[in-house]
Amino acid sequence: MSLHRHPDSPLLDHCPETLPAWVYRDAGWYEKERQAIWSREWVYVGRRNDLPQGTMRRIEAAGQSLILCHDRDGRVACFHNTCRHRGAELCSAHEQPLGKLITCKYHNWAYATDGRLVSTAFGTPTEDFRREDHGLFAVHVRDWNGFLYVCLAHDAPEFAPDMGVRSLDNWPMAALVTGHRMEKRLKCNWKIFWENYNECLHCPGVHPELCDMVPIYRQGIMATNEAAGWAPDMPRPASNLKDGAVTWTASGQPCGPVFPHLTAEERANGYNFVTIYPTMFIVAHVDHVRAVRLEPIGPEETLLTAEWFFPPETMAQPGFDPAEVAAFATIVMAQDAEVAEMNQRGLHSDRYERGRLMPQEFDIHRFHQWLRTRMEAAGEVIA
């Protein structure tokens, strides 16, 4: 049976091969991805308003220990967690107060919050020691809508969410506060999670609650232009959600005040996804926002952290429980975790070498191209 496909349809016109099974399991390849991707791309490390001024936090990105600093003047900076004297770590606790200086507890070398070496304490440098050459090793930091990102590369790439840097302008993002957080260790490679995220062929069999909320998902597609026989002049539904629902809560009703500056399209969408490879995706609803962060911690293990953000006035409502709002998406993520881990286990078959993508899995194909491009730039080719 051939697939009728309009030229403007995103559907693939062929069935390309998947990545080979070994790239999801091999420890050596995992290390190459860490160097070529996770050490060179922007990585999400938390919300600015969850790091109070006058605070230093120890974080990790691409296997490197870093310190994220929010000084008393409101400046955010990031440095490698190592003293320039003899390499001792500067921040041993998860979080600690930050004054005017970052001081090494070992020999009391001290640095300004911008990384400049201020003092060598009891050490007395000779004339061949240039203080300006021994500041902390800085890491690029980006604050986007209150989300903080770091990049370990010497020259940071363009920060480029898939929907553009203006995609969340109509949400009061920087003012939102964290209401709920969930962490889960997934027994799967990080790429498996992104592949699952990028298709809805699994939705009818895996996500009954989600398919009830978003009727088009029952067809195994994510948008009307993915349907067989679609043409640009076909009408779009008035809303992506089922009748009477406006957001992703158990009832479909908003949990508090609706954001006032959304466009009619943003309201009708019911969910607005923004993806920032390889680190996270954001789902902006009419009343709250969710962010899901990925951190690879081994070839076959990934830490998933989901956070829900709300306006302060929503959080202040009597009896408000952000966990109740989070319950709907938590069910969906648990279902995704189960099938992602099932996928990972199946990749250990001696007979399975690689598979084939279906036309509806065009976003997985794009993800594979994104991955290949970055690995090839580092001199690594996936055969």
Automatic annotation (TrEMBL):
GO molecular function: dioxygenase activity
Cofactor (UniProt): Fe cation
Residue intervals of the Rieske domain: 43-150
Record carries keyword Glycosyltransferase: no
Keywords on record: 2Fe-2S, Dioxygenase, Iron, Iron-sulfur, Metal-binding, Oxidoreductase
Alphabetical list of PROSITE patterns matching this protein: RIESKE
A Pfam family that the UniProt record links to this protein: Ring_hydroxyl_A
Name of the protein in its database record: Aromatic ring-hydroxylating dioxygenase subunit alpha
Organism: Albidovulum sediminis
